[in-house]
Amino acid sequence: MSKPSKAVLRLPLEKRAEIAFKVAVAKAIDEHARLGLPVYIWRDGSVVELSPDEVRGSSRNSQGK
Known about the structure:
Structural class: alpha+beta
Radius of gyration: 15 Å
Strand content: 15-25%
Shape: elongated
Helix content: 55-70%
Number of strands: 2
Number of helices: 3
């Protein structure tokens, strides 16, 4: 585990917790895709299954944003 930067440590605790949560979720989703497992998400009022290929495609698209 790496030590957070001084800029991150200056943020309020709730913001740091949000960042940590987002990083943990991204790692879990990446691991599912790597293992070939689907990911289930909530979209438009229902549960949707994303295949590992869909997960890989969406993570590549979001990295450029």
